[in-house]
Amino acid sequence: MADKIFRVNMTDLTTAIEDVPADWAGHGGRGLTSTIVAAEVIPTCHPLGPNNKLVFAPGLLSGTVAANSGRLSIGAKSPLTGTIKESNAGGTAAQLLARAGCKAMIIEGLPKEDKWYSLALTPDGVTISEETELIGKGNFEVVETLSKRIEGKFGVVTIGQAGEMKLTSANVSIKDPDGGIRSNGRGGLGAVMGSKKIKFITIDPKGGKVDIADPDKFKAANRIFAKALIDHPVSQALGQYGTNVLVNIINESGGLPTRNFTQGQFEGHESISGETMHDTIEQRGGKVKHNCHPGCVIQCSQVYNDADGKKLTSGFEYESIWAMGADCCVEDLDRIAEADRIMDDIGIDTIETSVAMGVAMEAGVLPFGDGAGICRILKEEIAKGTGLGRIIGSGAGAVGRAYGVTRVPVVKNQAIPAYDPRAIKGIGITYATSTQGADHTMGYTIATNILNVGGKVDPLTKEGQVELSRNLQIATAAIDSTGMCLFIAFAALDDEKCLPALIDLINARFNLSLTGDDIVNLGKYILKTERAFNIAAGFNSADDRLPEFFYNEELPPHNVVFDFTGEEIDTFWDF
Amino acid sequence: MADKIFRVNMTDLTTAIEDVPADWAGHGGRGLTSTIVAAEVIPTCHPLGPNNKLVFAPGLLSGTVAANSGRLSIGAKSPLTGTIKESNAGGTAAQLLARAGCKAMIIEGLPKEDKWYSLALTPDGVTISEETELIGKGNFEVVETLSKRIEGKFGVVTIGQAGEMKLTSANVSIKDPDGGIRSNGRGGLGAVMGSKKIKFITIDPKGGKVDIADPDKFKAANRIFAKALIDHPVSQALGQYGTNVLVNIINESGGLPTRNFTQGQFEGHESISGETMHDTIEQRGGKVKHNCHPGCVIQCSQVYNDADGKKLTSGFEYESIWAMGADCCVEDLDRIAEADRIMDDIGIDTIETSVAMGVAMEAGVLPFGDGAGICRILKEEIAKGTGLGRIIGSGAGAVGRAYGVTRVPVVKNQAIPAYDPRAIKGIGITYATSTQGADHTMGYTIATNILNVGGKVDPLTKEGQVELSRNLQIATAAIDSTGMCLFIAFAALDDEKCLPALIDLINARFNLSLTGDDIVNLGKYILKTERAFNIAAGFNSADDRLPEFFYNEELPPHNVVFDFTGEEIDTFWDF
């Protein structure tokens, strides 16, 4: 079936199916959401007002059997950063949207009445219904209730209480194959969905399928591509220990931000490490490997059970474990898993919220190490929208402002994740220059700074970091357009067969003849489009800087500061 | 005695007296604080970190007998706006500082230990002492306790609980002649003082006096100057009704922001008007006229008693009454006076906090009209630093962000005061272009738009507004350097003898021969110095805009929007 644009106007409560404009035809995922946001959203608009739009786009390969192609991109102007934003996650929605013939769904306007709604998307279009039963409920109850309410196999996109309250750390949450939750977490897109009064969206392709122009070529390419992914040692480590394999590695590097970014190593790292997690999962009968979407061959997710063998959480990521573990000094993996589950349920970004907790600990709101306090604040304050809950639920920057804390690890008001930019300098360039605020996934220099993937760039010197971040940010923008998980990048950087196979997959799907240069140009186009939006929104190079304390406070054990000048950072954009 | 710079280093707990650098010699008040902040503060520093400095400067004429010359300028990088900031207020401190031979006091650094301090300034220098007794206390208790603790006549500069908590709406508070409080309210300078762990500063000139180069010329000029002030009809109205004379006038104009800036007129305006206030004060044996500093000939302050004839508040300003009255729809002047007193006591900006309450009312935190709720939140939430208290105490922008409200009247994160920029367009240009965030006192176009002072510019059309705001902002920057109250401007605009007399006063004080052109050039220099600081801090013309809703939502009764393009606003800086 031909791909279409599905448009939903929440002001008039009308929907439409439109042909894909020629300019948008070659795009998918992040490339498409950013193109649409740049074309249709007034850059200076209030992110929660009627002029912002929420755009959903599966990747170019989503809905096919291509390995690891199930990421859903969501774009808008971010209420957290004020920049353009694309956040992508797994789950089943991207594949189902693509099979429903939806190239992108654009949600615009705000309802005139103070009512809540749900959307139901099928190949025939979108139906808007009023919703009352599930308002105020968490994501797990939404998914469970809908599985009883609606027949058949369908995807669910939902917001928890955080999104309803328009908290700027709110996720858009996606049902995974087992009724778990994957999170489009960064940048508060759940608040945009909440501002439009949409509690959830169901997606039913009604048996629809994605057309493949050259099925044989596609199959052959997929075989090579999947093998490259499976064979890479980082893929294997991810399958064995999840992303949490990184706790010990980053701790060893001295770049594990600890106690609100005052140390680079965490004494309790063993207790929260991937190795400990792996053994605990095995002992309790969980699953070491688990896929967030059908077709994933890496399977970095897992099912983490509690001491009684009952599922506690899945998609239990390094960045979440780091944030509550090292950054908040909580040494109890079960407690961190409990908090992770609560955050999935209320639909709030684990990175932003946990870094915010670290800042709150520095402010004396709760003591460092108080995992029970974190869970209490999540359930009793954030989920209920108390004053304290709204401060912490508005992110690390908000906590810093409310409590007068000066050590606040944010760029463009978005919390810096699990890699200290003083000890791993390449990632500092990514944090500073990313079009979307601090985000490791925008240009994951850890690959080359620490994991020796795609070569080796010494993390402690300035040399080569700007170029490394630039190349990775360009490549990432392109990968984020395909629907591919970013973890294909390890194989793509090291295995010379991987990237050509990926390009072959796209060419076979659409009957194109793209080359590697086209992919690089796509990445550059996306970054420049996003940056132009930000500049029109009022950003300038002064926003491409790290907070003052990274320049002034030495990080043990290497006792290093972030020492790039503004001029050096700005050379990032010389392309 | 020769004027000196008093420097206090809170990191080392050392103090020094320095000669005045040649570049600073011609400056006073705002011109001096902005010159020093621009010279010594790193524009990108965290406002609450060790690199910000808090600068106190009496005006060029402060400490003399010149009428209305008792304003104290305080400058720093603002934690509320991120811009350079100068806030000035009356009280006795400016005159006493000048008589102590202090041209400016610069407080820098942050204490290493978690202790509180006080400063005692005399002509011999500044003494730093540890303070424990008054920590956690309100401003009134500080003033009262010090009057028992310390002998003689001295000035007090203090912070309440808001400043201790580093809330970004915190005042620096100044004792007035009667033990009341005047507030350097805008921009959160109290938080900067709190970050430096200084609870209060006492000022004792030990009998010191300000030298006058030509006493006879000075006396003659002061006679003309004072007469011009006394004779102007606006001065007389201010003496009769206080600044609150404006409630009925601005309501009549349709520019009285009501119910969180959704209407331009307030049904309950009579109950909160200057006329009602005047009659109430007379009935209860208060004082209709009261001076905030010795030598004021306008006396717009008053003593407002409660129903039992006991003093409730003084310095009860139009902007405070408007904000709690019209903007929050509270029709009870006694309740507003109670809230005004509490805000003076905890040391928090009445404009910022009350506009924040209006946004909180729109968010449903408390109902519109709930004056008792305002007082409860002030006492039980803000003074105690609860989560809700910290949100509201962080200003209107913070409330908007925490509750996802889109109608948030701020520019550069500072609350827009009592004049709607849709119905009074000149003041919109001032809000947008001011170097310090939305602030009516930076270029008070109400004079010409509404009061027909200095001519007449129709408030509802765009014509002439940019020029009007520009001329007034230049003149204001110069007036703010003299130590003069801004209310001399009415006479200066209409009475041709007033401004020459003011220039004669300065010339006679310092043996200079300044002309009107010099004063204009001083004003231009100050604005450009401040703007250069802001640009270096990361601001650009995108920050010189009003919030989106002023462009999109029509304000009754005139049903007008703010319709200046960005390009039109930016012509402000063509000088």
What characteristics describe this protein?
Aldehyde Ferredoxin Oxidoreductase,  A, domain 1, 575 residues, six-stranded mixed beta sheet, homodimer, 14% strand
Structural description of this entry:
The structure is a homodimer of 575-residue chains. In chain A, helix 6 runs antiparallel to helix 20, helix 10 packs parallel to helix 12 and helix 18 (465-482) packs across helix 21 (516-537). The first copy, chain A, is built from 23 helices and 17 strands. Chain A has helices at residues 29-40, 93-99, 139-149, 161-164, 189-195, 215-231, 233-241, 246-253, 274-283, 318-327, 333-346, 350-363, 371-382, 387-393, 396-403, 425-433, 446-449, 465-482, 488-494, 498-510, 516-537, 549-552, 566-570; strands spanning 4-9, 14-18, 53-58, 72-77, 84-89, 102-108, 117-122, 125-130, 155-158, 172-175, 181-184, 198-203, 287-290, 301-305, 311-314, 410-411, 414-415. In chain A, 40% of the residues lie in helices and 14% in strands. The mean pLDDT of chain A is 97. Chain A has 575 residues and is an alpha+beta fold. In chain A, the strands form four sheets. In chain A, strands 2-1-6-3-4-5 form a six-stranded mixed sheet. In chain A, a hairpin with a 5-residue loop joins strand 14 and strand 15 (311-314). Chain A has a domain at 4-203: Aldehyde ferredoxin oxidoreductase, N-terminal domain (Aldehyde Ferredoxin Oxidoreductase,  A, domain 1).
